Amino acid sequence: MEEIRALIIGGGATGVGILRDLCMRGIPSLLVEKGDLTNGASGRFHGLLHSGGRYAAKDREAAKECIEENIILRRIGADFIEETEGMFVRLTSDDPLYKDAWLEGCEESGVPVMPITLTEAKEIEPALSPNAAEAFLVQDAAIDGFRMAWQNIASAKNYGAKLWTYHEVIEILSENGKIKGAKLRNNITGEEKTVYCEIVVNAAGAWAGKVAALAGLSVGVQPDKGALIAFNRRIVSRVINRLHKASDGDIFVPHGPITILGTSSISVDDPEDTSTSREEVEHLMRVGEEMIPGLRNNRILRVYAGLRPLYIPEGGAAGRGASRGFAILDHEKDGLWGMFTIVGGKFTTYRLMAEKLSDQVAKKLNNTEPCRTAEETLVNAPTEDEKESVKKYFPAFGLDLATHRLGRVRFARVSKALKKFPSKRVLVCECENITLAEVEEIANEDTTHNLDDLRRRTRIGMGTCQGTFCALRAAAAYYRVKKEKVDAVKEMRRFLEGRWKGIRPALFGKTLKEIELTRALYELSFNIEGDKP
User: Fold this and answer.
1) Where would a tag sit more exposed on the chain, N or C end, judged by fewer CB atoms within 10 A?
2) Exposure on the CB side of residue 244, measured as CA atoms within 13 A
């Protein structure tokens, strides 16, 4: 039985942002998530920090929000942002009138745009189509959703925040028209418990409608599935957007050593539906090749899908016709004091969404503390002197990657382990330069319950081998930490099945060759079979 003032349901970008904001205002809060953090859309998107250019022609308010938050996040969260820059490219087949409307929208929204010549565009992005007609630079960037979420949690805990992952809300409690609390189920142990609170915030994304129903409320949320393709190399060095009306397969986002092509837009009924198909792959590839010819010469790492939680008010449009803005619903008007739902929006504006929601919660609780989330850096990074002093203990190219993943406190512990125990310097994952010391540091966290939790914190299995070489090592290291709490072989098999889910829709060309290598290693050498179709 726990006593808190606010309960936040949903561990995506908006939920962790709200937790941080409320706790910084002195409002004791608990965040619960039925799986791991970023289990939904916040961990299954193209990883774009919008400049606002994507929305400038259609939704200038959304574009303005994006560029303002873009600047704020670069300041407070530099460790989860790669400042790639972005480029909008109009092909000869694209309507030049749209470009005119886009430039006007960018100017009115405050989105900086710099035109460049086609010669300049080809020099900095050689993979561009020869059918490019015009090119413009914008302030897009790449953002790591997993890292962002955990850095918000780290900051929130400095202000007393509580986090329970793998806890699902099964009942929302009220009395005389006021929120009383909620019943939760631990999805690992099956144990049930009750928390009492004054405020419940429904930030469950695509599941927001189901959570609202637990309180007898109705919220119009349409899960909109978007499929994406990850390639094994950095095909482009900037975010490349096609300058036309937003459609499928018209954006490329570089992330570290890989590139992500996205996305589609398909309305689905089930928020758990993250399935992908060969047909979706072929569709995205055909469209993507119009901007980047020769796309099929690159190996596909995996295909995945996320669900946008589009807010559909009565009579509203769905799919790409739906607004990418967000809505905050105070259910006091529905007869339930203390219940809020936040829906819609974009990853880039998560902090703003959290601020606006927290303003309303604070007002309800007679709290007058202002929002400070735009002012305070999320985590303290190691200093250059601290990095230099332990540089020789890290693998080549691994020092900066580790500092971005770990933050100052964990970096110090990992550095100490590497210095004291040479055996911990061995690489568990070559693709992402992850040492045994880092794996053990994260495995010891009380929020790490399986190899996928470890993956989201360290990026193990997310590089070009997709777990082929690191799954066995990671499972062994994880077992040494957890011991009797885990069946290492079963956990490794489940981890590989997760990688297989993303590879299966792309079984052709180089990808097919790679999966045969994985199968040979695990199925033939280690006698570990996958699920039968």
Assistant:
1) C
2) 17
CA-nearest of 205, 187, 221 to 145 is: 205
Q: What is the pLDDT of residue 527?
A: 78
- What local confidence, expressed as pLDDT, does residue 319 receive? 47
Q: How much of the chain is in helix, strand and coil states, percent to nearest 5?
A: 40, 25, 35
Task: Provide the token pair at 26.
Answer: 């002195």
- The alpha carbons of the chain give a radius of gyration, in whole angstroms, of 23
**pLDDT value at residue 427:** 95
Q: Where are the beta strands (DSSP E) in 121-210?
A: 132-138, 141-143, 162-165, 167-175, 178-186, 192-196, 199-202
Using alpha carbons, select from 135, 299, 321, 121 the residue that is nearest to residue 222.
Answer: 321
Token pair 């349409």 in the structure block, residue: 222
pLDDT in tens, 59-80: 999 999 999 999 999 999 999 9
State the pLDDT at residue 531. Answer: 55
Q: What separation in angstroms does the CA of 306 have from each of 167, 271, 349, 362, 462?
A: 21, 9, 17, 31, 16
Residues of the chain with pLDDT below 70 are 1-2, 314-324, 529-533
Look up residue 260 and give its two tokens. Answer: 């992500």
- Helical (H) or strand (E) element with 328: strand 326-330
Cα separation, 425 vs 394, whole angstroms:
7
Write down the pLDDT at residue 142: 97
* b/e per residue 22-35 (b: at least 16 CB within 10 A): bbbbebbbbbbbbb
Q: With beta carbons less than 8 A apart as the criterion, state whether 374 and 76 touch.
A: yes
